[in-house]
Amino acid sequence: MASSSVTSTSNNPYSVLNTGSSASSSSATSSESIQNRFLTLLTTQLKAQDPLNPMENNEITSQMAQISQVSGLENLSTMINSLLQSQYGTQSLLAASLVGKTAMIDGNTLTLTEGGTAQGGVILDAAAKNLAITVKNSSGEVIDTLTMSDVKAGLTTFDWDGTDKDGNPVAAGNYTFSVAATNVSGGKTTTVATQSLSNQHVDAVVWDKGSPYIVTPQGERVAIANIVQLS
What we know:
The chain is of the alpha+beta class and 231 residues long.
């Protein structure tokens, strides 16, 4: 049975969902500390200044402006960190919701269930007059061939009913397929570039170096950004 858990890693932002406001408090404390140190230093300077040559107003104003800039930058940094943490939390929830769904990803595997059908896909760089999909078993033997005509450019999905070329049901399991797309113009046949897509169950979601990946039944990790279609 496919696992519905979400695996964590050492830099997993799922931890964001349970964090408090410690980072914000720390930054606030740091900002206050800087201001307090500045005021203490300024007060000391005023007390120690030469009565015959006191500090100019523009000197005090300049120092006040500098501390305001430092404080403003730190507050901005705190705000940005808070937004990033919120984004990580949102990504974590969205990634977790993918578990149990079916994702269409780059690949040429057809997963056939007992008594069911297998779905795959292909992306065509241009429209094709003829499209042939050849299904093979683990030994590389041709099991069945599906044909389509006048296929538009872009994503096209197909269903294989799990039978061989004679119409006999085959065993459940993993099969592979290859795609050939062509056009015919003026008696000349040209090849259309294709990309094969595999429909895979999402067993789990993992984080690796700060990015979310889905895990297929074959243990393959696929970046969420590379998912073409979800169902």
